[in-house]
Amino acid sequence: MKQTIITLFLVHISFMSYSQDQRMNFEKGTFKEALVKAKKEGKLLFMDCYTSWCRPCKEIDKYVFTQEFVYAFFNENYINVKVNVEKGEGIELAQNYNVTSYPTLLVLNQNGEIVTRFEGVRSAKALVKKAKEVLKRNN
Q1: What are the C-alpha distances in Å from 78 to residues 47, 82, 104?
Q2: How far, in Å, CA of 78 to CA of 121, rounded?
Q3: pLDDT at residue number 13
């Protein structure tokens, strides 16, 4: 009995570690640091503008950004940033980029200029399709 419980616990821990490693890699630093990284790596910046109370924002987090083909694509091709537009530097970023509906997903060039914007909830397939089109136009 004791071995069974230990085995189940280890399987659970292994699964949790695996699932936590498989997600969108949103930069932890500042917006400016993310822009520097985008320049250094020659990538566009993908910015998720959200609020804590926004239900569609939470749905994108839960149902779109967790799909393997989504996070694999964005992690490889973009520098990803998640910005709460009601806190810290997010307030100014929302004003600068005229973010008035949530969620707003922006693609920015390495100078911080808007390449395209997505407003509202998108399906995972539609989001990746549009993001691929943006890459083709900007390469």
Answers
A1: 10, 13, 16
A2: 19
A3: 36
In the chain, helix, strand, coil percent, each to 5?
A: 55, 20, 30
- 3 state SS of 99: coil
Alpha-carbon distance of 125 to 25, in angstroms, equals 19
Which residue's entry shows tokens 């970023």? 93
Task: Give the domains, in start order, of the chain with CATH numbers.
Answer: 24-137 (3.40.30.10)
pTM score > 0.85 for this model? no
Q: How confident is the model at residue 22 (pLDDT cuts 50, 70, 90)?
A: low
For residue 80, list its beta bridge partners: 26, 46
User: What does the alpha-carbon distance between residue 110 and residue 75 come to, in Å, rounded to a whole number?
Assistant: 16
Query: Parallel, antiparallel, or unpaired for β 44-50 and 78-84?
Result: parallel
Residue 93's CB is within 10 A of a number of other CB atoms, namely: 19
Q: Which helix (H) or strand (E) holds 46?
A: strand 44-50
Tokens of 83: 């910005």
In which residue are the tokens 């949790």 written? 16
